[in-house]
Batch of 4 targets.
Target 1
Amino acid sequence: MAEQDALARALDLARDYIAARADRPVWATATLRELRAALGGPLPAAPIDPTDVIDALARAAEPGLVTTTGPRYFGFVTGGALPAAVAAEWLTAVWDQPASLYVMSPAASVVEEVAAGWLIDLLGLPAACSVGFVTGCHMANFTALAAARHELLRRAGWDVEADGLQGAPRLRVIVGDEVHVSVIGALRMLGIGSRQIVRAAADDQGRMGPDALEAALAAVDGPAIVCAQAGNVNTGAFDPLDAIADVTSRHAAWLHVDGAFGLWAAASGALKHHVHGIERADSCATDAHKWLNVPYDSGLVFIAHPEAHRAAMSLSAAYLVRSPEEPREPMDWVPESSRRARGFAVYAALRSLGRSGVADLVDRCCHLARRFADRLRQEPSIRILNDVVLNQVLVRVAPEAGDADAATRAALRFVQEEGVCWLGGSRWHGMDAMRISVSNWSTTEEDVDRSADSIIRAVRRQA
Ligand SMILES: Cc1ncc(COP(=O)(O)O)c(C=O)c1O
């Protein structure tokens, strides 16, 4: 049968890809022009056999794939893909369940309900939190801030869903100076422009302090949302959440925490002190596709005010019939109406790791980040720019003479071209840096050592 043949072929191709994952070049080998030539051409005039489509797609795409699931990909903050989660994703595609209403997939609804409970428990969040399964932390930030906007304006006597923002009481938003750009993007979609946002000073690691926040809140009137951060995208640093919650509660402000990857520190006995106070947040956002190693895309939002969450997201129409037993209706908690049932993969990841497995994954990545930093520090012309408190390492070339920014950029290019590992670049406090993020379940000490050697080779060429 054509369908089964295509799936069997995909399974063979997937097995080959996984077997080669640790050895294939980490970055793509094909050029843009080669990829366009291999994948392009006119729309076929007539149907093509599904197995042939899969074969040709894999052949043409593979040289353009980045081995993000491999053990030496340290770019951005990109988790790998746990075996149980990948397999659950395949079934999700075969089952093809829209996670919109219970009636469209009772299993998808109950899996979200169960996974939501596990996550709240694992991350130490208030038991009454409502949870949304979204595409990523950007949309998790959006969902949380939509709930914040609803609730603060409701308290001020304004129905933002009905009356919009024109003429509404003014909402103030305070963020740390090192806020992630997705928070700004989320606020923009909610009618709060970047020039309307107040930035509170951050320290040398990117942490917003309670004093800076206090001063910023004291300078504004009216309802306020404060966006704090657990895990700076460059340094991995955490805002002091408990002290920040003291300030926000004094000002009756909504506290939102962007914890795209840092929130997972809550699952580790050794690291959870970093997120002390998270249970006092009104909302928080994270990704499953980063540190939980669920395949893309998968983000999570937790809101301590379910009514505000539902009011900001929920829609009704005559044909969208809700079930009488009042089960979870997945579309009440997310911005989309129709979407893939991404709860299955989150459920599979959590079930396969268990509580200790998530803690081990987080601890192991942090141990490997420290190992990276320790090895690189031994090289005289390398500086580590951040305190390695989590899984992020910022590396800068500091030659005895010459332009350190240019040397850092050149070293990064060499590392990327050599293909042993892949890191991205960034700027930190006006300095170019190479950015290492250890977020993959399959990375070993040997992978770190091989990658550190490649970075040191690249740096020596600049010295
Ligand atoms: C702190 C922080 N917030 C938000 C995001 C956005 O996450 P996503 O791209 O998964 O939507 C990121 C991504 O790296 C991040 O590091």
Target 2
Amino acid sequence: MKAMVLKKTSDFRDEKSPLEVAELPNPTPKEKEILVRISACGVCHTELDEIEGRTPPPRFPIVLGHQVVGRVESVGPGATRFRSGDRVGIAWIFSACGTCKFCRAGEENLCPDFRATGRDANGGYAELMAVHEDFAYIIPKVFSDAEAAPLLCAGAIGYRSLRLTGLKDGANLGLTGFGASAHLVLKMARHRFPGSKIFVFARNEQERAFARELGAVWAGETSEPSPEKLDSIIDTTPAWTPVVEALKNLEPGGRLVINAIRKEEVDKDALQRLDYPAHLWMEKEIKSVANVARRDVSGFLQLAAEMRIRPEVQEFKLEEANEALTELKAGRVRGAKVLRVP
Ligand SMILES: [Zn+2]
Ligand SMILES: [Zn+2]
């Protein structure tokens, strides 16, 4: 099969084409696995983290890509969930042990043996991919292949963040940062919690205007106090200042959820300004979000179909993966980037 492979980590500024076209042997589905003929694969910021070594693959060469859509080509011994021709999606969670206490509780995202698609196992920048049948999802009919791909990452993680806030209808929700994931969260929150008011903190006026357009009752700068106290806040920024600032706005017993894989070091001194009585006293909580569990992916796909969420996508050919990544790195993010295969 044809694939775009990564052979080593490198700095994107020096190496503009980190992925190479390669001809790899077709994967054979093992026990309980399915073989998927890929039609679309989303391009995510995490691929840049893998290429540049912030979350490096443990072995090379590796096929990146964790927002995979395709059709079941064949099934391995003992696989019974799908039939050939079924349209399925594969997300960031490739596998987990299935027996530890986290797996048994449905929190397999926390499993010590968590393996990621396109980092710990070959992913979707290819024509074919094999995966355990329990880690694939039926794609709702309302989406085209290219539309479904980007929903498998940012949407699922946003869905998990919203779930972890424990928000109840009518309670106030705050969002710090307003990128792709946050605006999906805003749409989801309005749908699921129609009685809740949403307050958005964002650095630039364009983002704030967009937030109001999507139904935020208020949008202000990161350091502005919100006009009402907030029961839950989701932080999607890479920095610390917004976290410290946001804590002032939390209600007693409120929770702030950090949805970020890594935080930057640049403004870490903001933590020195943490004032216990103002920011944490009165049982305020801080919680992070790690990876996704399968129920987040399936729950979000169902919700996205119900809400008719239609992501705007920009398509590239598989061989153009380097170009897609270059545009993503440069911040030219008009719509989600999706590789079309073949
Ligand atoms: Zn991703
Ligand atoms: Zn486990």
Target 3
Amino acid sequence: MQNGFQILNGNEVSGMQHLAKITFPDVDRIARSGRALVILPVGVVEEHGAHLPLGLDSFAAEVYAEAAASHLEEKGYEVVVAPTISYGVARAAIDFPGTLSLEPETLRSLVIDVGRSLARHGLDRLVILNGHRDLSHMKALDEARTTLTEEQTAQVLCVGFTSDPELTAACYREGVPELSRSVRPDREGHGGEWETSLALHAFPDLVNQDIVARLEPNFEYDVSAFRGETKDYWSLSSGSGYFGSPQSGNAETGKKIIAIRGRNIAGVILNAWGPAK
Ligand SMILES: [Zn+2]
């Protein structure tokens, strides 16, 4: 993933920046502009079927952050992407090798600490962009948002997968279902068509395509237990770890999903905060 640098007015460098790749004078300049907006991608280390990497949700959050950034820059923001929080709460898939979980309190504290540190340097407009759907994980992020907002540390928004289903739909669902090639789009979920498509476009080297070719669709699972997290992923998927049809995924769909979700997420942010002044 690259920085979208542009040269403006002959010498002024602008475009989305990665906080960990710039210098302290750069941060100072961006903070003083009054137009800074920080995106904090949040993911998890969690199984995504035998064909996809454990870091998928973190990588997805980064990809969507970059896709949203250009729309925000068009409206005057100077977008800074903070280093991804790649650990999260992942209880549903904890029985699969490699899945790691934080206690919700650990995640909540971590996000609050990052938000306070950013605000100390004048970066007090924070978007938490979460790529991992888990109720306790999303709640912890929402609680961090509430704390940072109530103590007036920063303006904070949660986008991507959030504890507000309408907000999540506005970010991730709008414009997406019609792209489906699955025979059961209503059954596509974790590790299925959408995540496989995203990975095939954005990080194809991390997809095991030989395995994809052997994966039968998993449509006959308990959808309400999956959504409500009342049963774990191992028992829900008989140890396969995916829901839906990975074979329906393709790179072209992935490219479209990223563009649509990037625009959706920017739209939600602009709806809440308006253009930069
Ligand atoms: Zn995922």
Target 4
Amino acid sequence: MPPKAEERPIRITTAVVIGAGHAGLAMSRCLAERSIEHVVLERGEVAHTWRTERWDALRLLTPNWQSRLPGYGYAGTEPDGYRTLPEVITFIVGYARAISAPVRTHARVTSVRRIDERYLVRTSQGDWLCRAVVLASGACNFPRLPTFANRVPRRIVSLTSQNYRNPAQVAEGGVLVVGASSSGTQIAYELHRSGRQVVLSVGEHIRAPRVYRGKDIEWWMDAVGILDQRYDEVDDIARARRAPSLQLAGSPDRSTLDLNALTAIGVRLVGRLAGVTEDGKAQFAGSLANMCALSDLKMNRLLDLIDERARQNGLDDTVPPPHRLRRTKVDEAPPLGMDLTTGQIKTIIWAVGYRPDYSWLEVPVFDRKGMVQHDGGLIPSPGMYLMGAQFMRRRKSALIDGAAADAHDLSAYLESYLNNRAPPSVGRSGHGAGAGLTVGV
Ligand SMILES: Cc1cc2nc3c(=O)[nH]c(=O)nc-3n(C[C@H](O)[C@H](O)[C@H](O)COP(=O)(O)OP(=O)(O)OC[C@H]3O[C@@H](n4cnc5c(N)ncnc54)[C@H](O)[C@@H]3O)c2cc1C
């Protein structure tokens, strides 16, 4: 008989990192650099979420050069290409190997509790006692679903951007894709190309050209300091953290996949899905034109800023002149409703964002909405830190490219905590000083 939980031997280490995605591994590397003994606990294999929770045709929307992890980067011949899903997995697994990360796979953390001055971390493979814990278990554990999702008629198959894999999984006929950020637009495109009739429900989104003035938009955002903008430099960080991801896709031809590109091939746009009635009628907000105008406005503000910075830095003569995209074209009077009981729509794909899962965290660090409270990744429990959350310390915190600077900063905090020293002053110089921008993009 397996021993009861209370009788299981407890292993002791200094720090436990929960999650072997790129964020947990980046932290592992920074802890090792500081000679802090630690273990990385992973419920599956390294890069588990990329193996199990993404659609097959996904490519990173960030170019290859932009996956810079501590001591590791892109070494291939296509720095401006976009990794396929298998390439992302290979990249992260390669990183774990290169840094000899002390990962324990198939060790699902089932609870974290504070006991005296330490944390007791219980897992499916034994328990750990440690002084510091880093939560790197991911910001996208569950898909977000509106409360009315359960009113969708039973005969319609509901999928999410997390369990959608490829068109073969989707019945012939109509598909309603809900959400027009990067996931929703990519899935809508793929399904349309497979011959399905696709209706795309458009809520708040941020449009961006894939390539601007000859350079990838991510190159510009990196170069002008937008991605390095710090969490304590924006007026409303709560709002900034809720902002959707840029409406971008990575494709070999580096084309822009925006709503104009989708309507040009026959995808039909409707407003934000505001509700589903008891008798199975979808209700769309009448704000489609406004949503698109707002998105165009934000994109143009971003491009204005890029142009200004290019001028200030003497780049104007080295890149093509500024240009603007045509405004997003929408129907004057898009439908405000759709009867979901007619059999026309066979599948709904929800692509309206994700939320983390901290159901195993038994430490009182949650806010009223059930989110882990933190100040730039410092959780209000001694020796506890967060990684990988949206705009956690910098605008790029949830991107692969954001982990290096955040892990550098937070490992310094962690080390000073272990040594009972005053908190370090990190994050301003060298990493993420940014350009002090306040533009809301
Ligand atoms: C669809 C999609 C596309 C994206 N595209 C890009 C992109 O193009 N470029 C980019 O830079 N970023 C992209 N991101 C954002 C980001 O890089 C990914 O979300 C990334 O997976 C986050 O890394 P992470 O290490 O924080 O979390 P994860 O990769 O989710 O890693 C967390 C790990 O923790 C493990 N875990 C969770 N709970 C437990 C537990 N209880 N016990 C033990 N282990 C646990 C998980 O199994 C997982 O391996 C994308 C995100 C999504 C959802």
